[in-house]
Amino acid sequence: MKNFIKLDDLKDFNRTLSLAFEMKKNMNSYSNIGKNKTLGMIFFNPSLRTRLSTQKAANLLGINIMIMNFNNEAWALEFEDGTKMSGIRSEHVKEAAGVISQYCDMVAIRAFATLENKKNDEEEIVLNNFVKYSSIPVINMESATAHPLQAIADAMTITEYNNKQKPKIVLSWAPHPKALPHAVANSFIKMIKNINAEFIITNPDGYDLDPKITKGVKIYSNQVEAFEGADFIYAKNWCSYQDYGKVLRTANEWMINDEKMNYTNNAKFMHCLPIRRNIVASDQVLDNKNSLVLKQSENRVYACQAILKQLIDDQK
Ligand code: CP
After folding, report:
1. Distance from the CA of 231 to the center of ligand 1, in angstroms?
2. pLDDT tens, 154-190?
């Protein structure tokens, strides 16, 4: 694997999962493979889990890290080719990526969707320019359209808590006051294709995700009907894809609460975090023993270790 930008970059999804579980069993088992290597971590957006789990994963493999918050610590970057840089953007990504490539052996990047221009977001301007101008592997720590590290951690969590041949897994839209990107939902849908499950999505009218990603998946507009007999409920908000970047309506009645969870088969509750309590899901759902949200965040460390190890191995 040259870069880890999306789940499709993995040579073998199941091998990655096994490696992540191996790391979980003994997190120090490869403590020297990153000796004398440096991971650059650059953030265009905030993070708690991704930043700390990636840092921890790197430390466990003996990798040094350099972290930079690009929004308030670095020069504002220009991504357009051939432009006359007379505005506020002081440095071109060509030089920035070239410089980071000299100091680091790998670079991990977080760059969310702007939600202003669908075409630009789908082109992954930030991530793809770093891939283009870096001479080192690039890792996606959540981009405009994908969050593959989260999806591997979610696959681990489902595997650990599933006790059925073919569980019913529901990805449910949930309310949120702000417009949020599609990255987590997109990668979750892609990841689920590797799991033997009955998978459905439920969202209000107007909130269907990119049809190229949801192709072949049943989408219910009745949330309660979708929840019936479910073994896992994965909650996530996303803004409208058709009316790109818009919050069409708050749809507060879509909050996940005990009453809705009672329609499920005693389902486990999942969310990538951060989560707004009593907006996305009720306190009762989050504080219930069936909530796996902290298990998911724990698995972020091992998922990242599995990716870093493969990138190091493939650099040899
Ligand atoms: N789930 C996740 O990526 O969390 P952070 O945004 O805090 O990194």
Report:
1. 24
2. 999 999 999 999 999 999 999 999 999 999 999 999 9
